[in-house]
């Protein structure tokens, strides 16, 4: 039996692989080489010994490289050396990952485009070496690592340029370090990483205590729960609301170096009522009465007489009403934040103990509201809204004005929450010549 099951499994697996290869073949014939490669790769992943899938995958990848080189040439002829070089770098990385070496006309095209690309890289390298931003040079070198690594001349040029840009990086590092003091914790952390990237030792000092953020919440609760029925109690509500203290640790306002607590006032009012009444219900059913008789020829005849009936029974109908009113209030950074959330719902349900199979009638339990689950879901909505409001308060404080924190500190605080914000983006571009994402790819988050 096990052998049969195993055989069926193998047949199914082979059939699935064949289907993937067939789809890959159709996409390949249609010129959809990326999609074809995806199907071939899935087939190879399922069965590494699938020769047809392996051959198809290699052919599709070769076509991807071929088509990519055509794109490189078109970009270069369109006077877009940046796009052409980026595409060529991508192709070289693909060839390395896939273990593909170009041959014939493809190799000739790649060699020609590589010469143009490396000529542009040499020119740009010289420009960036003489430029004011050493990080642009470092990012450029990282961005085109394959093309540079494959050229002895470029490797020598960029190695020689390191001494020039390193001197500029030292100046930049020391300039940042000179601004680190007091409450500039974000600038301290960034400067530490920035200087480490350039292997420049620095000693940075800030205050021992972060007075701009908070260590924990001081949560004051005012709870009212009116509910004679259901699975909700004041203690459960209190514990659920108290989870905000843990959630707060993910907020931008939290800092391990802080000491003070953020006072939060939480008001919760839950009211649930349930009424019940007895009702009369009716269920329809049919009785079949079979009779036998003989016709004039003496043959037995069976007839069925159907009679519609009504079964009466008693049921109990329940109606529930639920209202939840919640408020969270605080003053992060001395500015008030208030969020409310109100919820109301009703539920009608019915129960009975009647067992009458003829009418397809069976006992039925009431389906009441899961009050604790509903409350947790509504509280989650309020907490998300409240935390968003805290973020908005942070953004207003640090993304719109310099203030006493300094441009660098405030820009970094802004970027920690909204890296795409114009206030932060302007500082990164002017100070380093790179956007936030590119610079942090070098420095590390």
Give a written overview of the molecule:
This protein is α+β, with helices and mostly antiparallel strands and 445 residues long. Among the domains are: 2-130, no CATH class; 217-243 and 255-374, no CATH class. It has helices spanning 2-29, 33-46, 51-77, 81-98, 104-130, 134-143, 145-149, 152-179, 185-197, 234-242, 244-247, 371-398, 407-417, 422-432, 436-443; strands spanning 216-227, 261-294, 300-330, 337-351. A hairpin with a 5-residue loop joins strand 2 (261-294) and strand 3 (300-330). Helix 6 (134-143) crosses helix 8 (152-179) and helix 13 (407-417) crosses helix 14. The protein is flat, with a radius of gyration of 37 Å.
Give structural attributes:
4-stranded mixed β-sheet, flat, alpha+beta, 21% strand
Sequence-ordered SSE layout with sheet pairings:
Layout: H1 2-29, H2 33-46, H3 51-77, H4 81-98, H5 104-130, H6 134-143, H7 145-149, H8 152-179, H9 185-197, E1 216-227, H10 234-242, H11 244-247, E2 261-294, E3 300-330, E4 337-351, H12 371-398, H13 407-417, H14 422-432, H15 436-443
Parallel strand pairs: 1-2
Antiparallel strand pairs: 2-3, 3-4
Helix pairs in contact: 1-2, 1-3, 2-3, 3-4, 3-5, 4-5, 5-8, 6-8, 8-9, 9-13, 10-12, 12-13, 13-14
